[in-house]
# Entry
Amino acid sequence: MKAASVKELKQELNNCSQQELLELCLRLSKFKKENKELLTYLLFESYDEAAYIENVKIEIDIQFDQINRKTYYFIKKGVQKILRELKKYIRYSQKKETEIDLLIYFCLKLKNFSPSINKNVTLQNLYQRQIGMIEKAVATLHEDLQSDYELELEELSSLK
# Structure
């Protein structure tokens, strides 16, 4: 089965009644956990972005505490899992400021992680890629916001 384009879906959704849209949304939420999480964000959390960011940070803290620290292999796998979840939360929000705040927090947690990531090239590269992503996202913001985030970026870079 070939999926319809976004334009075709939008046209078809315009023809649906409110009740039909409600049923479609509920049916969509039953199929995948991500659909339900996105719907939860849109309905309950999107109005208060600051609280959303704090909740995600709390979840990051919990996940970092649960990482198996026996070997760098397990640490790498745990960090990659956290980053996958984080990217998902960033996709839900679609706001650059949220993306930057969460990535900076992730990098701070990773940099302060014990045992140090400086002893593992893979983790160092992962850290550097996230710094690059932050720099790229900061470049798209307004100049005033850029200067604020650049100060935080310098702080992250100085932690090396």
Remarks:
- The chain has a mean pLDDT of 90.
- The two ends are 50 Å apart (CA to CA).
- Residues 72-93 form the longest helix (22 residues).
- Residues 13 and 21 are 7 Å apart (CA to CA).
